[in-house]
Design a protein that fits this description.
The protein is of the alpha/beta class. A 6-stranded mixed β-sheet has the order 6-7-8-3-9-10, sandwiched between helices. β4 and β5 form a beta hairpin. The termini are far apart.
């Protein structure tokens, strides 16, 4: 093997999706009480790309996603071992404030969950509590920019002070995405963000993901293999709490190396 002497082996490697690695998981195990939910998961997640986690229900996809921003900390009896690094920094380091981690790693859930506040206040909340703006005009600028990046500004610009809960399901999900990006995250986690949406709203969110990947590392859990094929550049297949295989999305879908991946993709189980 020829190794360039000017490149250290510890440097972030290019991922199959093209960019350098943003998140690196090594030997991650998760326990809920006596039950083990994840077994020795190791995965590199590239920056400025969409990585899809696929697999049948209960296979560990969402459990792994929740490890990245320490959402499992909120579950009684949950225990995580192994290492997950964000730009080389261990996210489970006890000196790392999980609130600050969750500002860097935003999360969008399956069911749209806007705050019971106005559209404006939904987006302004994060920048306010994290001290990202010092004046009313700065807050207004962040709100407008975030709503524009979430593809929602033109639909809500004339009703910013109406409740966010009054929007349609698809609009609420884009509002939640605007809320997530308002605090300048580095990573956006999406846990089945389209499962509660109709096809038109789903298409808008997928289009948004395609735009946001120019700036963010995005990790999406999806039950829809068609969606994974459409939106992601890298795919990881989970089964029974284990990461079976990972690679460029087109390769995973057209030429999987493991028979379990093949069986899942062709609908033999799942």
């Amino acid at each position: 093997m020829n190794v360039n002497p000017h490149i250290t082996l510890d440097a972030p490697k290019a991922s199959p999706a093209g960019g350098p690695v943003k998140l690196r998981a090594r030997d991650v195990n998760v326990f809920y009480g006596d039950k083990q939910a994840l077994f020795d998961v190791s995965l590199d997640v590239p920056e400025r790309a969409v990585t899809a986690l696929i697999g049948p229900s209960g296979c560990g996809k969402s459990t792994f996603l929740r490890c990245i921003n320490r959402m499992n900390d909120t579950i009684p009896g949950a225990r995580v071992s192994g290492r997950i690094e964000l730009d080389g920094e261990d996210v489970n380091d006890r000196s790392l404030d999980p609130v600050l981690l969750r500002a860097r790693v935003g999360m969008v859930f399956q069911k749209p969950n806007p705050f019971p506040k106005s559209i404006f206040e939904n987006v302004a909340y994060g920048p306010r509590i994290h001290g990202l703006a010092s004046s009313k005009s700065e807050i207004e600028g962040i709100v407008e920019t975030s709503l524009k990046r979430a593809g929602l500004w033109n639909e809500v610009a004339d009703r910013l002070h109406q409740p966010g809960t009054g929007l349609s399901g698809g609009q609420q999900q884009r509002l939640v995405i605007a809320r997530a990006i308002a605090v300048n995250p580095e990573v956006i986690l999406m846990d089945e963000p389209c499962s509660a949406l109709d096809p038109i709203a789903t298409a808008k969110v997928e289009e948004l993901m395609d735009e946001l990947k120019q700036e963010y590392c995005i990790v999406i859990v999806t039950h829809s293999m068609a969606q994974a094929a459409r939106v992601s550049q890298k795919t990881a297949f989970f089964h029974l709490g284990k990461l079976v295989e990972t690679g460029p999305t087109d390769e995973i879908f057209t030429n999987p190396r493991d028979s379990r991946t093949q069986d899942y993709i062709t609908g033999r189980f799942g």
